[in-house]
Design goal:
141 residues; mainly alpha; 5 helices
């Protein structure tokens, strides 16, 4: 018998006690931190002038710091985009303009991002040119 105003779940649909405890344990777990591939972080370190074979602990520390930075900037960008309630053309969530808005006050990071985007655009153009040359049958020098 059910009491008025109280929803009841049929016994067949109720989760077992073991399943409930697993759900609770899963909810109590700390969220998994994203990890960057350590080989890529080591390569970046070498590219920026560090040792060719950095210590594993250094790579792990830098990887954690980079992941924390990326997560922090992405969360702030998502929050700003939500606050602006700007209609998104795509359903991808955080867009480039959101990230640029977050880092615009740090001139060094902002200019690095602008340079990266400019270089990336130039590389894309060169790849398209290379692809069009290869499809027309011309050989590479």
């Amino acid at each position: 018998m059910s009491t008025p105003g109280k929803a009841t779940v049929p016994k067949a649909q109720r989760p077992s006690a073991g399943k409930v405890s697993r759900i609770i344990q899963t909810a109590k777990r700390k969220p998994v931190k994203p990890r960057l591939p350590e080989t890529e972080v080591a390569a970046m370190m070498k590219g920026f002038g560090d040792d060719g074979a950095p210590m594993r602990e250094t790579v792990t520390l830098l990887s954690d710091m980079l992941a924390d930075f990326i997560v922090r900037v992405t969360k702030i960008a998502a929050h700003k985009a939500e606050m602006l309630k700007r209609p998104s053309k795509s359903k991808r969530g955080v867009e480039l303009q959101d990230v640029m808005a977050v880092i615009r006050h740090d001139k060094k990071k902002y200019m690095r991002c602008v340079d990266f985007l400019r270089n990336s655009h130039q590389i894309d153009k060169l790849n398209e040119l290379d692809k069009s040359i290869n499809t027309k049958g011309a050989t590479k020098p």
